[in-house]
């Protein structure tokens, strides 16, 4: 892959993950407190951010020649996205049973951040 295009994907990846978590937190609180403010816009935004993370992550993974630790990071990132979706859907519909998904969310996020920042990996 062209170095400049790789840099673009990389910047998208590191530039949007925190934003994704912030939009998730805001949407969760809006649903929890039943505040009908910009819900549609934020919902669409978070889906676009999921897409940006997945596409840019896949591009980085490709450039890194599918090294095992990044394949694992990618899979756990998908589990994290799944947990966020379930939490948002359940909270919106006032359903119980989110605690197991919060546990998955927390565990997956911890692993994704550690692997994303190469903690404990000597390259
Ligand atoms: C919710 C989704 C995701 C989050 C929160 C996330 C978070 C992160 C973070 C924090 C980093 C480190 C960025 C930095 O160095 O400043 C990173 C890097 C990376 N991510 Fe993700 N990511 C997500 C999805 C994905 C997906 C779906 C894939 C693969 C298909 C992926 C593959 C990678 C790769 C290969 C790196 C590069 C690691 C390195 O250069 O050391 N990510 N990600």
From TrEMBL:
Keywords: Cell membrane, Membrane, Transmembrane, Transmembrane helix. The chain crosses the membrane at residues 12-33, 45-64, 70-88, 100-121. Pfam families: DUF1516. InterPro entries: UPF0344 (IPR010899). This is DUF1516 family protein.
